[in-house]
């Protein structure tokens, strides 16, 4: 059986598209509401292939009757288990080349693409992680994983595969990210996979609570002492500084975490280094995408430097190829990251055109990311080939790189950088962080509610100055710096259609949504 994960936040249109594209005759739902959505599509004649729905939570007989009328059998999970007991089948172990998952990437543009992942892909990726980390970390049946990342995300699936293969346990969070810290304290996990967004929040919260210059100095001093140990390859949580300064931070995650892995998006070197010192556990950073199952590079044990995504994993060969229009040349150790190996996917389901764009004739996956080899053999992701655009003078802009720089501004939660080929400069829509804005503004001499501060033109100038300063420190060129911003009070989210289910920006939708504000920023600049 091939598994096709469906995000409940995809929306009716995308769900209909996936059900038809993947010929899904059977769908599992957790809640009756989702079954109703699926039945509505069948009743409209939009998904004729669907004939069975299994619901995990309790539901009324009206759903069963409604299903009968349109030719869909509706079962409870318990009924399905009973059917299995009374109709036992001989096990059919899969072959390496058999499909395991068709993972639809939540496209930032156009229809979702179904990445075909085989059993070989999954086994090679999971075993490569175990091989890379075996000298310093070996999972055991005593380990506990906290699962809060989407199960439709290959990163989470590979982590769970590693854990289950070693007889360890998995605890699933309550479903509300705001209660994650409560779940961590209750479960006391030993393995904690994370995404940079959560790390940034942890970092900001820790420094936000260090509300006096003495506390901040002690935090900096303690982390510098432990950073010196990290540079020597020492990872521990029993030093003097752990007992005096960092014990509370470690306890907030349950107090037993011994492995953390971050991936899915870039993480700032300063954030990663600080959290490695504060948490005192093995903390790896990886890089990859759905098309290479999950990861293709990973930090090496003993190298706890930040600012790179490690070395190629045992399942991957990585090369860089020229991107001449952006002046990245492989001869200089820079170029588009290309990956080959048993973890590279088979292609996109029923989409030879898109498959040919991603996989060349020699089997190399072209990731669309720009990488650079560092002297120690690690890979650094420095830019993005996709989503690039030109400004009026012909400079190429990679907005995601710029956004990741500006997200280091303490006052900001989200940033959308925009430019146009007829304009000479960039503008941005920023969403100030509701948790940090008021304290940050107070230091600048401003007071008021979140909404009032977001409307304050003088505060806007301070935020823009902070963005430009951080941009300079991070090496942004002058044409990569935004010249004006608009402050927006509502977070970009999956619900308002501005983020994909993996929390990536839907750039065309963002542009459309903020078009009037963008036009105004450009018009004001000409006055």
TrEMBL record:
Enzyme type, top EC level: ligase
E.C. code: 6.2.1.3
Domain of life: Eukaryota
Gene3D superfamilies: N-terminal domain of ligase-like
Example GO molecular function: ATP binding
Domain AMP-dependent synthetase/ligase per the UniProt entry, residue ranges: 1-349
SUPFAM superfamilies (alphabetical): Acetyl-CoA synthetase-like
Reaction catalyzed: 5-hydroxy-(6E,8Z,11Z,14Z)-eicosatetraenoate + ATP + CoA = 5-hydroxy-(6E,8Z,11Z,14Z)-eicosatetraenoyl-CoA + AMP + diphosphate; 12-hydroxy-(5Z,8Z,10E,14Z)-eicosatetraenoate + ATP + CoA = 12-hydroxy-(5Z,8Z,10E,14Z)-eicosatetraenoyl-CoA + AMP + diphosphate; a long-chain fatty acid + ATP + CoA = a long-chain fatty acyl-CoA + AMP + diphosphate; hexadecanoate + ATP + CoA = hexadecanoyl-CoA + AMP + diphosphate
Keywords in alphabetical order: ATP-binding, Fatty acid metabolism, Ligase, Lipid metabolism, Nucleotide-binding
Entry GO CC: endoplasmic reticulum; membrane
Nucleotide-binding is among the record's keywords: yes
Cytoplasm as UniProt keyword: no
Family: Belongs to the ATP-dependent AMP-binding enzyme family.
Reported function: Catalyzes the conversion of long-chain fatty acids to their active form acyl-CoAs for both synthesis of cellular lipids, and degradation via beta-oxidation.
Protein name as catalogued: Long-chain-fatty-acid--CoA ligase
């Amino acid at each position: 059986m091939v598994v096709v994960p469906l995000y409940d936040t995809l929306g009716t249109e995308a769900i209909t598209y996936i059900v038809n594209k993947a010929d899904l005759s059977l769908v599992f739902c957790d809640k009756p509401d989702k079954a109703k959505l699926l039945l509505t599509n069948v009743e409209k004649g939009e998904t004729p292939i669907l004939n069975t729905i299994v619901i995990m939570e309790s539901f009324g007989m009206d759903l069963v009757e409604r299903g009968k009328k349109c030719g869909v059998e509706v079962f409870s999970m318990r009924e399905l288990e009973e059917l299995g007991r009374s109709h036992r089948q001989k096990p059919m172990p899969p072959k390496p080349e058999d499909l395991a998952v068709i993972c639809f990437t939540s496209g930032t543009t156009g229809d979702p693409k179904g990445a075909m992942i085989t059993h070989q892909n999954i086994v090679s990726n999971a075993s490569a992680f175990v091989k890379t980390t075996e000298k310093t970390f070996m999972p055991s049946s005593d380990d506990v994983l906290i699962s809060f990342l989407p199960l439709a995300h290959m990163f989470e699936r590979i982590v769970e595969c590693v854990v289950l293969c070693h007889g360890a346990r998995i605890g699933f969070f309550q479903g509300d990210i705001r209660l994650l810290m409560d779940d961590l304290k209750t479960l006391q996990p030993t393995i904690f996979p994370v995404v940079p967004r959560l790390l940034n929040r942890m970092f900001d919260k820790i420094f936000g609570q260090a509300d006096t210059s003495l506390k901040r100095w002690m935090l900096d001093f303690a982390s510098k002492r432990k950073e010196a140990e990290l540079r020597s390859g020492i990872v521990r949580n029993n030093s003097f500084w752990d007992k005096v300064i960092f014990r509370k931070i470690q306890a907030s995650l349950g107090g037993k975490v011994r492995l953390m892995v971050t991936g899915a998006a870039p993480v700032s070197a300063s954030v990663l280094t600080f959290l490695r010192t504060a948490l005192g556990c093995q903390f790896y950073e990886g890089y990859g995408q759905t098309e290479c199952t999950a990861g293709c590079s990973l930090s090496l044990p003993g190298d706890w430097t930040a600012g790179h995504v490690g070395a190629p994993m045992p399942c991957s060969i990585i090369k860089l190829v020229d991107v001449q229009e952006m002046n990245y040349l492989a001869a200089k150790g820079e170029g588009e990251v290309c990956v080959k190996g048993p973890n590279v996917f088979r292609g996109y389901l029923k989409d030879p055109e898109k498959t040919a764009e991603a996989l060349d004739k020699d089997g190399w996956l072209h990731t669309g990311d720009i990488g650079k080899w560092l002297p120690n053999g690690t890979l650094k992701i420095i830019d993005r080939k996709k989503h690039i655009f030109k400004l009026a003078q012909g400079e190429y802009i990679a907005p995601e790189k710029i956004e990741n720089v500006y997200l280091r501004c303490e006052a900001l939660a989200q940033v959308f950088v925009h430019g146009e080929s007829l304009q000479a400069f960039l503008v941005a829509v920023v969403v100030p962080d509701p948790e940090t804005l008021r304290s940050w503004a107070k230091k600048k001499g401003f007071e008021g509610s979140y909404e009032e501060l977001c409307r304050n033109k003088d505060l806007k100038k301070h935020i823009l100055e902070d963005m430009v300063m951080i941009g300079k420190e991070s090496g942004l060129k002058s044409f990569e710096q935004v010249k004006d911003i608009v402050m927006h009070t509502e977070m970009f989210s999956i619900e308002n259609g501005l983020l994909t289910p993996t929390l990536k920006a839907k750039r065309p939708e963002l542009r459309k949504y903020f078009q009037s504000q963008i036009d105004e920023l450009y018009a004001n600049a000409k006055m």
